[in-house]
Design a protein that fits this description.
Layout lengths: L15 E2 L2 E2 L6 H12 L6 E4 L5 H8 L5 E5 L10 E4 L15 E7 L8 H11 E12 L4 H10 L7 H7 L9 H8 L2 E9 L5 H6 L1 H11 L7 E8 L9 H8 L1
Amino acid sequence: MLTFGNVIMFRKQNECYKSLGIAAAPGTHVAVADMVCKYCVPNQSILELGAYTGAMIERLHDIGYHKIVAADLDNHLTISDVSHVQCDFNKEFSLFFGEQRFDCIIASEVIEHLNDVRAFLKQCFALLNNDGILIITTPNIGFFEGRVKFFLKGELWGFGAKNYLIQRHISPISLEQFPLLLQESGFSTLEIFTAASFATRLRKLVTSILWIPMRIIFGPFVLGETVVCIGKKSSESIGSFQSADLWKKSR
């Protein structure tokens, strides 16, 4: 739909699933669902951190996944018959689940809001069964529009003052940091890719003079507004990148 009175010409409207609102770029939930299908079987247990309205859970229900628990700072679910745990992801939220453990944890568009991403991942580690899967999405600061913004303003895409005040986007993670971040938290990295976009076809056409050469020079990660990262809980994944350890090595 094109209207000249607003930005609908260039920006897709917020996505919904069965009228359930989605707080992510269009295509993010599809990418996550694809990863759940790839790495999990329907009878495995799933915990969604940051469940919001329950759109992801409803999507997974429709493709055969029913052992799902929701968690969020507040209960915004508009679907029924789903267990919801209210907890703060900036704290030791694993304590709210007692002895319950999961085969897969989904944290879509969560980590950018958190005070300590590493502490959050260690809580996820504690909640996963051995060889459990962790699926994370977060804004792609290497998105081609973000590269232009950084060149012009010296500011990361999705993490400016407006994003801080309205959305509390405070913790950007780069693509190169993800494998190290996961390794430090007890996970091996299975795959990382980018997906999703608010861009309409017209916007993609208008900006093609920028993204086509960037895609050729810098590779596929300049496309897609969202980073999707899949990790696997692993006892063999041990990394120590603490300041004290690194300083000891340099002496």
